[in-house]
């Protein structure tokens, strides 16, 4: 049974993730604006938007049912819960006793399930497009993600995130070439899960490029705020996963003020850098045709398979 | 027993065989019937001879029966049945095998029945030694006639030949089993002939021909 | 335990009574109670019985000399009791449901026959798992097939129902023949058809015999379980049957195949802990993966609710088989804990599938009951008319999609962990191939989610697509109750996995069993560091806590706001109607394109132009997309046609020519004489 | 029981049908002769049960010296004769009555029919109780002739054709049987037996001393001869024609009983030859013919258009299974074969009756024209299904057990290949047979018909048989079990005790 302090620390980590997530979105937007030679809004803009949305009244489609209404809450609950299992600046989370990486994936799945239903609930063609694309992409991402997890779990002995991250922080990448391939796969998966380019484009509301946005098109007010927030939390979770698993340097493995502070700072730096990198990437490539996306995913799968073989040989 | 008896047996057997061949070779129904009558008479004589050789008195009765039933009654019945039919339907114009071919086959069958008899070890019983193959041959020749002929009438006659063969066969091997069975067999054959002649009659009514090619409604292909 | 025996006899007599009552109640007012109340009581007693057997000790009963050579032996040990428990729970729910469901049959046709078959069907399943003698096993097995066959073609006004029933009957009989062969091999060794003798002496069989026994039994039972490519009867039979029957068939009956496989592997075929037997497991894993992937791929594009559910049954059987196969592999390499893990995973999934598939079929039944169509293209918007049904169906959908916090997730989590543990097998080739096998597994999970999103949304959400919703109303209470039972069990087994796991560990006498419902399922590495943990109760608590927290937070930050009901955003077009929304076909279109090699989709478009020479003003467009079943085309049709060709050649001998007939006799005698001459036996 | 009462029993048993036939000829009123025949049939049934009781208690029963000799095996054959005879007569009343009403037959025919039936029964009753193999041959031949008369009862073209083929082929075949019999007799003589050399008891007694070569050849003749009558392929060709063209009750008797009588002959000689050569020789011959029969039946059933022809082929299959069981030998095999004889004799008449009623209702035997029996005639339809599923060996009906035993014995005797082949044939038969059955039973009738089951007397015989079919599926009375055990030990050991 973990100590009270540890539990509080774990909760703090989760809350921090939730708190940080809009910031990451902001940073990425800013980076994109810069790369496109625009001023762009400040990096705290997402916070303002969220608060604004929470204060606004909602319009709800008359076709829609309780599924549509409940989706934002289920969505946030699932993703928020997932946040608790992620080691952020402390190399283990006490909730490791409760759930593991697969549970996190499952929770994401729950969120996605309801989002897809909500997209179809309003009987608008946009929702339909979004859900059907999401269906295909998520289906195909599933094996890629799982194989990547497979490699990582085998390498560090467990899908328990604490075990994973600790193992990572105690060893260097060099003896584990397979991790490189896993990282590639994981990266593609993250792009897909967060619906970023080349999968979809957050910036526009053009039906050619929408995936996630198409599904949540009907939302407004509090619900929209919830959805966006949940989405950005998901993004941060994935980022911190990849960051902590593949670049586990400087994460605090013991509970002491200095190490914790250091870990926190380092984490924020790492994740921001990663975010910026993603943003750069996004603004340097174009959206792909929907039926070229499977090729990309296949690449991911293949690379994680290679990683697997490398591990066993 | 003496040499003479043996010769008599052999000769009569030969005659019987020839008579059977005669039955096989004929085409027209009346020729058939005559050939059959002839064969039956020979059979009766042979029976009598066997009776004499073995000295079992029942066999004389059997001989008598044979003579009466086979060479008198049955031909009468058949002629009566087929009186109404015109000559074409009684004649078997095209058997499956030509005359020559059927003779060859019959020859083969005769050899086969001799071969078969060789398989069976017998006490040196001249009657058996002579007549077993003959009767077998008769049997198989009758069967062959059945297979080869196309008209119902000729099939009846084939049946009769088979029956003759059977009779001889039983006689030879059993020297007249308990008479009941002999009589039973006779009765069966007789009834069979009667029934088949009824059938012939009906057939000629319904199909106005005795050609068995007409009897091919019941089939699976 | 004499009480157990009496209890068992009471159960049997109850079901028999239900059958007879059903037969004599000629569609009277009381016919439905007369039929289904006995079956309900029987089901409850079955649950009671199996629980007592599991907790105390096994029950055996022998009735000698009813027929020559074989005694009617009933032997109920943990495994049998486990399956009886499933039968009991599901059939109780289904009977309750049928009280309402089979009302329409009173008008349409004789419900009395239905009641007879229904009761006998359940009874035969109980006896199958109970019987302890090859002869009676096969007898009850075929009785089960026969009754289910009649239930499948119960609505025999439709030609295709009868056809599909025929397919089912023939294929299952083929399976039975193979099971029989497997028993015969055992009989050859032991000289008896009693299972006890098999148990005692099977370990000493020669290896070849063991392998043969396993293979034939696996194919035989697999036919019933519906593993690819022996599955073709399943998507035919399930839609034809009345929905309550298809619930029973899919939830319980195909599990009998699994039961048979388990029995064969661990009891009869003398499985031993040596790598020689690893290939059994490999075979199962391969078959399982194929079934899982292909089943779900056909399910995701299917238009008929019940066909889709049937295909997903194939998928779930596949998942169960993968677990089973893994446990066999582990056991053959003497990795005891791992094989327990895999076994628990697959058995847990067996439980789950029994529950949620029963639930889903009953849900589908309610939909058909209300709307009289099985085509999801014609459905939609039912969530408003049928709130309860949609709610329960959604629970089933989430469970079967393997999402937390419901039961599907637990078993699939265990299954994935089992696959992950394959790294401990001391054989690189196996390690890698099992790791590759995780690819279809993961894909299957993803597709399952897609399938049930599609099904649920097409049936219940947005506007209706064809049938008018005016006269559609919620189904009667007892039907809802029937579904609710299974739904609650789904949630229960999801949130408190302790139940399932401790049940399994008592059934299979497993060493490690959790002590309290609160401590997590914990998997350890060899160095005792935690490999993975899962504690569903806490997850459930956390989910609700987060939901509450965010609710409060938003109320605090956002204050009070109003909701306005308004039409869906229509880009200002103003006349959104149901013909503009996404259809079932269009939703699955991307997947159909990605996996086109399997579906061989055939699309055709008919355009009519308002002005024939002008191809721009299109009046109507008809689009028709069909997918093929590659197994029927490339596997079954050739086999059947070639067989018929041979038969056709053989029967030609009946030429109708008397001469030829006589010739046969002549030839036969000559040949036989020659045969005798030249053979000296 | 002492000799007097034994003699009386036999005399009464044989007198009953004879007197029945005579009475029929005396008063030629339809109603009376029907009743007379039913009475005589039921009398036979009762007496047979009495005899069975005696046999079960004291193994054998011989009368008039050794002229008549009934052992358990004979009793096993006797049972179906009486049962099927009874139900057929019962069924005939309704069936022939309807034929009469629609003017297909007149009084003359009816009288001739019932005479024929009685004599047919008489001749078949003699077969299993006589000790003299020659007499047995004579009676079997007699059955042929009588059944030919019954088949050509009303002179339709097909009936005549069938009768002709049946007459010729059966007579030829049986002549082979006679040759075989005489060979055996000769072997017995040359083995030094003087009196009752034609008696089965005597033969079995001396069978050790027979000359092997002679016995081999003799058995081949017997096999082909009686095999023709028993409908073993490829001598079965007459069977579908005869069975399909005969009046339905007669078809039931032909396939339910007559075939058994012929098989009885084969098995008797099989016992003798096993005494001389050991079972191996005749077993392999039996197995060969059996497999051919089952295969040909499986092939032919699929393509049938005529309902009764299909049933006839299934008879070929079942005769094949019986001889397969005998050929495999061993307790399982022989027991199974005997059980199969009884089961088939119960199930097949059921099917024939049902199909007869159906074809009277639909006025056709062509299966493609028959649809939705279960709707038009519910009870008959249900019975039809029961019979059909029994015939393809589906539990919980009777034939499953016997086939199970036979196939098991196949593995027991190490004939794996043969058994596997047969199993696959059986699966094929299952599929093709049920295909026809289901198509006829379900679906919607082509033209509108009023819903009735063609009178109670049509139903009752079927219900009797159906009950037996179901009961024998999972319960076989103790007495019958002992009887079968003794019978199979007779066949098995080749010993008479």
TrEMBL record, chain A:
InterPro entries tied to this protein: ComplexI_Subunit1, NADH_UbQ_OxRdtase_su1/FPO
Annotated Gene Ontology cellular component terms: plasma membrane
Keywords per UniProt: Membrane, Oxidoreductase, Transmembrane, Transmembrane helix
Domain of life: Archaea
Membrane-related topology note: Multi-pass membrane protein
Transmembrane segments: 6-28, 73-95, 101-120, 140-159, 179-199, 236-252, 258-281, 293-312
Protein's cellular compartments: Membrane
Gene Ontology MF terms in the entry: oxidoreductase activity
EC number(s) given by UniProt: 1.6.5.11
Enzyme class per UniProt: oxidoreductase
Protein name as it appears in the record: NiFe-hydrogenase-4, membrane subunit
Lineage of origin: Archaea, Nitrososphaerota, Nitrososphaeria, Nitrosotaleales, Nitrosotaleaceae
UniProtKB/TrEMBL annotation, chain C:
Subcellular location: Cell membrane
Name of this chain's protein: NiFe-hydrogenase-4 subunit B
Gene Ontology MF term list: oxidoreductase activity
Keyword annotations: Cell membrane, Membrane, Oxidoreductase, Transmembrane, Transmembrane helix
Assigned EC number: 1.6.5.11
Species whose genome carries this gene: Nitrosotalea devaniterrae
Group of enzyme by EC: oxidoreductase
Presence of keyword Repeat: no
Membrane topology term: Multi-pass membrane protein
From TrEMBL, chain D:
Subcellular location: Cell membrane
All residue ranges annotated as the NADH:quinone oxidoreductase/Mrp antiporter transmembrane domain in the record: 131-425
Keywords tagged on the record: Cell membrane, Membrane, Oxidoreductase, Transmembrane, Transmembrane helix
Single GO biological process annotation from the record: ATP synthesis coupled electron transport
Transmembrane regions listed in the UniProt entry: 6-28, 35-56, 68-91, 111-129, 135-155, 167-187, 251-271, 283-303, 315-335, 372-394, 414-434, 455-476
Major location (coarse): membrane
Molecular function as annotated in GO: NADH dehydrogenase (ubiquinone) activity; oxidoreductase activity
Topology class, membrane: Multi-pass membrane protein
GO CC, one annotated term: plasma membrane
PANTHER family with a match to the protein in the record: HYDROGENASE-4 COMPONENT F (PTHR42682)
Name of the featured protein: NiFe-hydrogenase-4, membrane subunit
């Amino acid at each position: 049974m973990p100590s009270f302090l540890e539990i509080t620390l774990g909760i703090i980590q989760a809350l921090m993730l939730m708190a940080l997530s809009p910031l990451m979105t902001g940073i990425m937007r800013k980076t994109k604006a810069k790369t496109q030679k625009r001023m762009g809004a400040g990096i705290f803009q997402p916070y303002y938007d969220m608060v604004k949305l929470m204060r606004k009244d909602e319009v709800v489609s008359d076709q829609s049912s309780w599924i549509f209404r409940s989706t934002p809450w289920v969505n946030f609950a699932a993703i928020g819960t997932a946040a608790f299992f992620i080691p952020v600046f402390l190399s283990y989370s006490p909730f490791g006793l409760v759930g593991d990486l697969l549970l996190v994936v499952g929770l994401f799945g729950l969120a996605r399930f309801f989002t897809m239903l909500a997209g179809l609930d309003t009987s608008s063609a946009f929702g339909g497009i979004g859900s059907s694309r999401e269906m295909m992409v998520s289906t195909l991402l599933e094996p890629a993600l799982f194989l990547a997890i497979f490699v990582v779990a085998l390498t560090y002995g467990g899908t328990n995130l604490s075990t994973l991250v600790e193992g990572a922080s105690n060893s260097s990448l060099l003896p584990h070439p397979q991790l490189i391939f896993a990282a590639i796969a994981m990266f593609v998966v993250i792009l897909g899960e967060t619906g970023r380019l080349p999968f979809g484009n957050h910036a526009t509301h053009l039906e050619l490029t929408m995936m996630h946005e198409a599904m949540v098109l009907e939302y407004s007010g509090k619900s929209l705020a919830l959805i966006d927030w949940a989405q950005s939390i998901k993004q941060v979770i994935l980022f911190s996963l990849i960051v902590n698993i593949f670049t586990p340097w400087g994460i605090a493995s013991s509970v002491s003020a200095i190490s914790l502070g250091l870990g926190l700072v380092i984490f924020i730096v790492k994740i921001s850098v990663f975010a910026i990198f993603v943003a750069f990437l996004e603004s340097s490539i174009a959206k792909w045709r929907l039926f070229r996306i499977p090729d990309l995913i296949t690449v991911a799968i293949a690379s994680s398979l290679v990683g697997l073989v490398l591990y066993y040989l | 027993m003496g040499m003479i008896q043996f010769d008599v047996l052999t000769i009569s057997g030969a005659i019987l065989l020839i008579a059977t061949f005669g039955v096989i070779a004929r085409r027209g129904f009346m020729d058939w019937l005559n050939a059959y009558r002839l064969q039956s008479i020979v059979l009766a004589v042979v029976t009598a001879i066997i009776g004499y050789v073995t000295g079992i008195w029942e066999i004389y009765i059997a001989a008598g029966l044979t003579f009466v039933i086979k060479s008198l009654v049955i031909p009468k019945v058949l002629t009566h049945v087929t009186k109404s039919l015109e000559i074409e339907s009684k004649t078997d114009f095209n058997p499956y095998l030509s005359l020559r071919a059927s003779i060859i086959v019959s020859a083969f069958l005769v050899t086969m029945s001799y071969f078969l008899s060789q398989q069976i070890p017998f006490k040196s019983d001249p009657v058996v030694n002579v007549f077993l193959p003959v009767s077998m041959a008769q049997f198989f020749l009758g069967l062959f006639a059945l297979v080869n002929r196309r008209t119902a009438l000729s099939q009846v006659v084939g049946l009769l030949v088979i029956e003759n063969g059977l009779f001889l066969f039983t006689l030879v091997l059993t020297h007249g089993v308990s008479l009941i069975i002999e009589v039973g067999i006779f009765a069966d054959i007789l009834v069979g002939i009667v029934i088949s002649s009824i059938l012939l009659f009906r057939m000629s009514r319904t199909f106005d021909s005795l050609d068995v090619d007409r009897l091919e409604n019941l089939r699976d292909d | 335990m004499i009480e157990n025996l009496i209890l068992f006899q009471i159960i049997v007599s109850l079901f028999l009574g239900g059958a007879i009552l059903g037969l004599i109640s000629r569609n009277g007012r009381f016919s439905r109670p007369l039929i289904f109340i006995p079956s309900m009581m029987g089901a409850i007693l079955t649950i009671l019985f199996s629980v007592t057997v599991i907790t105390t000790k096994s029950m055996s009963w022998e009735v000698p000399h009813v027929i020559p050579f074989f005694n009617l032996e009933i032997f109920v040990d943990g495994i049998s009791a486990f399956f009886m428990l499933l039968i009991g729970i599901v059939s109780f729910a289904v009977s309750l449901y049928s009280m309402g469901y089979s009302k329409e049959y009173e008008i349409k046709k004789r419900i009395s026959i239905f009641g007879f078959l229904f009761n006998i069907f359940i009874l035969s399943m109980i006896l199958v798992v109970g019987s302890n003698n090859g002869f009676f096993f096969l007898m009850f097995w075929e009785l089960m097939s026969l009754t289910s066959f009649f239930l499948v073609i119960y609505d025999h006004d439709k030609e295709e129902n009868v056809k599909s029933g025929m397919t089912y009957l023939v294929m299952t009989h083929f399976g039975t023949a193979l099971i029989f062969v497997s028993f015969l091999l055992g009989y050859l060794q032991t000289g008896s058809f009693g299972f006890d003798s098999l148990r005692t002496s099977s370990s000493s069989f020669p290896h070849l015999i063991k392998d043969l026994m396993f293979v034939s039994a696996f194919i035989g039972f697999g036919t019933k379980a519906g593993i690819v490519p022996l599955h073709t009867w399943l998507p035919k039979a399930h839609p034809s049957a009345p929905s309550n029957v298809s619930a029973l068939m899919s939830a319980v009956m195909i599990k009998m195949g699994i039961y048979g496989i388990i029995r064969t592997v661990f009891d009869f075929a003398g499985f031993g802990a040596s790598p020689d037997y690893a290939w059994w497991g490999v075979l199962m894993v391969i078959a399982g993966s194929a079934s899982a992937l292909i089943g779900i791929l056909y399910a995701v594009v299917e238009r008929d609710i019940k066909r889709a559910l049937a295909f997903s049954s194939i998928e779930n059987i596949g998942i169960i088989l993968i677990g089973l196969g893994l446990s066999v592999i582990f056991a053959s390499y003497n990795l005891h804990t791992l094989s327990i893990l895999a076994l628990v995973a697959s058995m847990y999934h067996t439980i789950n599938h029994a529950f949620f598939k029963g639930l889903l079929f009953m849900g589908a039944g309610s939909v058909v009951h209300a709307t009289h169509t099985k085509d999801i293209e014609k459905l939609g918007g039912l969530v408003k008319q049928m709130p309860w049904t949609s709610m329960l169906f959604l629970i089933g959908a989430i469970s079967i999609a393997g999402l937390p916090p419901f039961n599907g997730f637990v078993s699939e989590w265990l299954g994935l962990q089992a696959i992950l543990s394959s790294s401990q097998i001391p054989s690189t080739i196996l390690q890698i191939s099992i790791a590759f096998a995780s690819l279809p597994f993961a894909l299957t999970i993803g597709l399952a989610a897609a399938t049930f999103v599609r099904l649920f949304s097409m049936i219940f959400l947005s506007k209706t697509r064809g049938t008018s919703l005016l006269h559609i109303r919620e189904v009667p209470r007892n039907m809802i109750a029937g579904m609710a039972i299974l739904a609650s069990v789904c949630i229960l087994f999801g949130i408190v996995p302790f139940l399932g796991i401790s049940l399994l560990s008592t059934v299979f006498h497993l060493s490690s069993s959790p002590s309290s419902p609160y401590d997590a399922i914990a998997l350890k590495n060899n160095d005792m560091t935690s490999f993975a943990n899962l504690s569903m109760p806490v997850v459930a608590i956390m989910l609700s806590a987060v939901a509450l927290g965010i609710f409060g937070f938003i109320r605090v930050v956002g204050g009070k706001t109003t909701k306005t009901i308004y039409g869906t955003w229509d880009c200002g077009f103003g006349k959104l109607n149901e013909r503009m929304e996404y259809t079932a076909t269009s939703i699955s279109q991307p997947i159909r394109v990605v996996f086109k090699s399997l579906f061989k989709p055939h699309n055709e478009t008919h355009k009519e132009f308002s002005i024939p020479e002008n191809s721009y003003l299109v009046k109507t467009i008809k689009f028709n997309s069909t997918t093929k079943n590659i197994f029927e085309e490339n596997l079954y049709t050739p086999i059947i046609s070639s067989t018929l060709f041979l038969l056709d050649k053989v029967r030609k001998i009946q030429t109708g020519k008397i001469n030829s007939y006589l010739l046969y006799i002549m030839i036969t005698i000559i040949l036989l004489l020659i045969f005798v001459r030249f053979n000296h036996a | 029981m002492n000799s007097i009462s034994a003699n009386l029993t036999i005399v009464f048993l044989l007198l009953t049908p004879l007197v029945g036939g005579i009475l029929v000829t005396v008063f030629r009123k339809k109603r009376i002769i029907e009743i007379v025949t039913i009475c005589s049939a039921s009398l036979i049934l009762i007496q047979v049960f009495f005899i069975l009781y005696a046999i079960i208690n004291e193994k054998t029963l011989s009368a008039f010296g050794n002229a008549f000799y009934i052992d358990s095996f004979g009793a096993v054959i006797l049972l179906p004769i009486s049962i099927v005879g009874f139900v057929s007569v019962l069924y005939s009343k309704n069936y022939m009555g309807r034929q009469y009403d629609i003017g297909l037959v007149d009084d003359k025919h009816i009288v001739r029919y019932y005479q024929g039936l009685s004599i047919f029964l008489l001749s078949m009753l003699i077969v299993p109780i006589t000790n003299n193999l020659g007499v047995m041959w004579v009676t079997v031949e007699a059955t042929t002739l009588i059944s030919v008369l019954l088949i050509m009862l009303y002179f339709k073209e097909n009936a005549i054709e069938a009768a002709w083929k049946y007459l010729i082929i059966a007579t030829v075949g049986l002549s082979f049987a006679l040759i075989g019999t005489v060979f055996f007799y000769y072997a017995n003589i040359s083995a030094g037996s003087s009196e009752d050399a034609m008696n089965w008891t005597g033969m079995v007694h001396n069978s050790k001393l027979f000359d092997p070569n002679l016995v081999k050849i003799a058995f081949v003749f017997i096999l082909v001869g009686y095999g023709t009558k028993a409908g073993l392929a490829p001598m079965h060709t007459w069977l579908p024609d005869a069975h399909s063209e005969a009046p339905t009750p007669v078809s039931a008797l032909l396939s339910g009983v007559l075939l058994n009588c012929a098989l009885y002959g084969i098995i008797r000689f099989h016992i003798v030859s096993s005494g001389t050569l050991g079972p191996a020789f005749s077993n392999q011959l039996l197995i060969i013919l059996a497999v051919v029969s089952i295969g040909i039946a499986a092939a032919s059933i699929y393509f049938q258009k005529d309902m009764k022809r299909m049933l006839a082929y299934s008879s070929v299959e079942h005769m094949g299974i019986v001889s397969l069981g005998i050929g495999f030998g061993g307790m399982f095999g022989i027991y199974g074969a005997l059980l199969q004889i009884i089961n088939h004799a119960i199930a097949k008449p059921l099917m024939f009756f049902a199909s007869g009623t159906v074809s009277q209702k639909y006025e056709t035997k062509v299966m493609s024209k028959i649809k939705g029996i279960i709707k038009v005639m519910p009870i008959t339809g249900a019975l039809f299904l029961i019979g059909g599923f029994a015939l393809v060996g589906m539990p919980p009906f009777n034939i499953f057990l016997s086939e199970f035993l036979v196939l098991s014995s196949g593995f027991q005797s190490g004939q794996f290949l043969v058994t596997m082949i047969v199993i696959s044939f059986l699966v094929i038969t299952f599929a093709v047979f049920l295909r026809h059955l289901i198509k006829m039973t379900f679906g919607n009738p082509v033209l509108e018909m009023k819903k009735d089951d063609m009178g109670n007397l049509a139903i009752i015989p079927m219900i009797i048989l159906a009950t037996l079919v179901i009961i024998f599926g999972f319960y076989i009375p103790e007495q019958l079990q002992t009887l079968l055990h003794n019978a199979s030990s007779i066949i098995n050991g080749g010993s008479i005790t």
